[in-house]
Amino acid sequence: MLRCRESFITRTPLLFLQAVRFSATCSRTSHRFLHVMPPKRKAISPSPPSKRIKAESPTSPPNDVKSNGAEDSDDIVIDRRFYPAELSIARCAEYTDNKRPRPMAQLNAALSSTAAKRAEIKPGKCVVHWFKRDLRLHDNRALALASNMAHKAGIPLVCMFFVSPQDYEAHVVSPRKVDFELRSLAIVKADLEELGIPLYTTTIEDRTLVPKHVMEKAKAWGAKHVTCNIEYEVDELRRETKLVQSCLKEGIDFNALHDDAVVPPGALKSGSGSQYAVYTPWYKSWAKHLAAHPHLLAASDPPAPNPAEAKEIFREIFALPLPEAPLNKILAKDEKERMASLYPAGEHEAVARLERFVEERISKYKDTRDLPALHNTSILSIHFSAGTLSARAAVRLAQASSPKFKTDLTAGPQGPTVWISEVAWRDFYKHVLCHWPYVCMSKAFKPSTSLIKWDYNPKLFAAWREGRTGFPFVDAAMRQLAHTGWMHNRARMVVASFLAKDLLLDWRLGERYFMLQLVDGDFGSNNGGWGFSASVGVDPQPYFRIFNPLLQSEKFDADGSYIRKWVPELAGVEGKAIHDPYGRGAGAKAKKAGYPPPCVVHKEMREKALQRYKDVLKANP
């Protein structure tokens, strides 16, 4: 069964692999839901970047890729500016065998062991909420907790957000996503100001100084309580664990809450008491758990207005301008304008988009989700990724569309039922991150697959990246990504399979390239999607599932509309030849229009891929 459609929503690994250096050629709506929804607000943008900065196109080759001169995939180096050497297969096994503590367990332990002491801390002069990937005021768990504490104590709420260029670089966040986040941040700032709540923002060049800055600002403002929402990647879990402990030494209660995942990682166990590694049984357990714990879907209230004196006390913060995108994530002017047009930012736009989707398209979702030319998916991945919309809100609204959902999220009409299950994929991959943290450390879920011998062919990688492989559906998808920063999920699976199994290129190169391009980049979903497509992830199906790009094209773009939109060279090719112009008599027309012939023979490459996977996986089950 094919998986990860809407959920292939997609941060490459926190311990991400460096790509091999390529040559210059690589180059709708219920009352229950509405009461927690924000009022409409027109999207606004932060201050434009300085004109003196020369923008680098996100489609250009990464300038930080290195090669150690080796040709084997296990010799691809890590970016040593931030991380040590690649994790060994033996070290991965220590996590799997429970011999090494998981970062999520360490954070849970830190919060649990300090709970009593933190509960004794009395309110200070204010309460602080740290925004990260939760850029919304409504249905935000940690923000709601901070507001409630402040309101109860009669003190102000202060919020903060940091721009961290090194984190953007280390986590391979695309310039497009940074731009979307900063545009969303501007809306958060405006909404907070209407409530008299200040938003402190600054750029911190050295990523290791972020925790220190959190503590320094809390102390400077006289705050005794700081909240944030948990991010499930390794770096962030370790950072928050240290903050819980170091803040307590300073008499500050630092509290991190589950918000990004609907069901907290670790809450679901199989019959044997272990973490699920297969989606279908996990999803059944997820739906059953939500039925038994409906509070997990309940919306959190937006923050209450601050006391009137807050505007004077924090006047300097209110006067702060929003930070600009750092130099390493600047968008060219035309690119910035295109992204703003394609993807209006902020939670108000997110709610409007969700409502339109549920009212107009969700009923047909099951039947149309795989057809990229129809635009019938929600395209909410951008908002989930930046936190301008909670996954809970999406599930609640879909749930409200039918009374059958009240007791069972799997029992409603097909369209909403399937969509809820696809949104759940996002939770699934976060559960995977927490239980098998080495997937954040440059290793696949199946660590032994790092032994597969990958080819390193600059011309083939360039052809794939630029949408000039000679396989029209693949090329259409890659050009859509380059122009819009987004790709239909069916197409994501096809191009990912093509890279790994038709071109025999290391899947991690594609994973990283996606993150550098995607406006909706999300590490868990991107990593999970690539793992599925390359048969190295949490997938019970064996390695011999290889997408045939021609058959995928004929099935999911039968009339060629998707191809003709993104590959204008083939606009004049009629009938089924659009899928394979050189193999169906339209080669001369395609060649004249400048479209290349296929760069590989699918049948031949399929056999090579099968043999390479077989050799490694049979020897290392």
Number of helices: 26
Shape: globular
Distance between the termini: 22 Å
Percentage of residues in strands: under 5%
Helix content: 40-55%
For the record, the CATH class of the domain at 103-318 is Alpha Beta
Query: Order of strands across the widest beta sheet?
Result: 3-2-1-4-5
Question: Which blocks of ≥5 consecutive residues have pLDDT under 50?
Answer: 1-75
Question: What would the average pLDDT be, to the nearest integer?
Answer: 88
Rg (CA only): 24 Å
CATH topology of the domain at 103-318: Rossmann fold
Name the structural class: mainly alpha
How would you explain this protein's 3D organization?
The chain has helices at 31-34, 89-96, 103-119, 141-153, 165-170, 175-194, 210-221, 234-249, 279-292, 310-313, 315-318, 333-342, 347-360, 365-368, 381-386, 391-399, 414-435, 458-466, 472-484, 489-502, 507-517, 523-533, 549-556, 561-566, 587-592, 602-619; strands spanning 126-130, 157-163, 199-203, 223-229, 253-257. By secondary structure, it is mainly alpha-helical. The chain has a 5-stranded parallel sheet with strand order 3-2-1-4-5, sandwiched between helices. Helix 4 links the parallel strand 1 and strand 2. The protein starts with 30 loop residues before the first helix and ends with a helix. Residues 1-75 have low confidence and may be disordered.
